[in-house]
Amino acid sequence: MSSLFKIFDTAGSGMAAQSTRLNTVASNLANADTVSSTPEGAYRAKEPLFATLHDNALKAGAATQDDGTSGVQTLGVSESQADIQSRYEPGNPMADANGYVYGSNVNPIDELVNMISASRSYQNNVEVMNTAKQLMLKTLDVGK
Amino acid sequence: MSQINDNLFGLHTQALGLWQKRAEVLSGNLANADTPDYLARDVDFRKALTQASGNQLPLSAPTAGQIDPNANAGEQLAYRVPTQPSMDGNTVDTQVEQAQFAGNTVHYQASLSFITAQIHMLRTAITEGQS
Q1: What is the pLDDT of residues B36-69, one digit of tens each?
Q2: Which of A46-50, A55-59, B103-107 is predicted with the least confidence, judged by mean pLDDT?
Q3: Using the beta-carbon criterion (under 8 Å), do B21 and A2 form an inter-chain contact?
Q4: Which long-range contacts (CB under 8 A, 24 or more apart) does A18-22 make?
Q5: Least packed by Cβ within 10 Å: which of A86, B12, B51, B73?
Q6: Please, are residues B41 and B25 in contact by the beta-carbon 8 Å criterion?
């Protein structure tokens, strides 16, 4: 059944994905300056992985037919494999035996760019949803 | 009388369904604007409407595995030709999709207007111009 209601699902999945992305950006920026006493414990920048969610994936019956509508899903959140930076700060309470602390590998510039992109994409999806709503309301008024 | 009913709205009832379908596809493109390896798609409107209007003799697909030319427009989605390459293999150009979606919305409303106008015309005839 083809219906304008599907647009709400599609745009909604897009909004959910983008808000996940905004969440990881917020987490990364908040932890940009955290330190750890071990390289393993240092904060690593997180990034969500998006994938297309085909509508027929939801319906077990129609396994072969792709009807063209596709939302987004977040497959998972990956952690950046960039190098952890060590700093010599013997006075830091978190310093290890040699006086080193290990900072996060968050790149604030990357995060800000990500934030702008996620915000714009979110707004796009909101506009799509608004337009679909207007079309549905106008359809209800046919003949008046 | 039934003939009047059948042709009352012309192609606009079919067109409405296709505009709606296209809005769904375009909204999918916009939602996947940041998905790696997503290929933007669109409805071939001319082909779909020609098919919906029944002005074309249907081809047959006698053998399994052949592309069914009578499949509905949703199964005949075309891939958009990318205007600029991207590193993650995504071919959604947000501006293009936005423009197409806006145009699609106007077309949908135009079809609605035509249908409304037809209803008004019939109502005028029924009430002898009184309302």
Answers
A1: 999 999 988 877 777 777 666 666 666 666 655 5
A2: A55-59
A3: yes
A4: A18/A118, A18/A119, A18/A121, A18/A122, A18/A125, A18/B34, A19/A118, A19/A122, A20/A48, A20/A74, A20/A77, A21/A47, A21/A48, A21/A114, A21/A118, A21/B34, A22/A115, A22/A118, A22/A119, A22/A122
A5: A86
A6: yes
Residue-wise pLDDT tens digits, A75-107: 999 999 999 989 999 999 989 999 999 999 999
- Residue A46's DSSP bridge partners are A79
The residue to which tokens 């606009």 are assigned: B12
- Chain A residues in contact with B30 by the CB 8 A cut-off are 11, 14, 124-125, 128
- Say which of A72, A127, A132 has its CB closest to residue B32: A72
Q: What is the 3-state secondary structure (H, E, C) of A40-104?
A: CCCCCCEEEEEEEEEHHHCCCCCCCCCCCCEEEEEEEEEECCCCCCEEECCCCCCCCCCCEEEEC
Instruction: Give the gap in angstroms from C-alpha B3 to the nearest C-alpha of chain A.
Output: 20
Contact between B30 and A11 (Cβ < 8 Å): yes
Residue of chain B minimizing CA distance to A144: B116
Backbone angles phi, psi at A133, to 5 degrees: -65, -45
Beta bridge partners of A87: A101
B58: closest CA of chain A, how far (Å): 21
Between chains, do A139 and B21 touch, taking CB under 8 Å as contact?
no
First CA to last CA distance, chain B: 22
B33 touches chain A (CB under 8 A): yes
- Pick the closest to residue A42 from A88, A81, A93, A90 (CA basis): A81
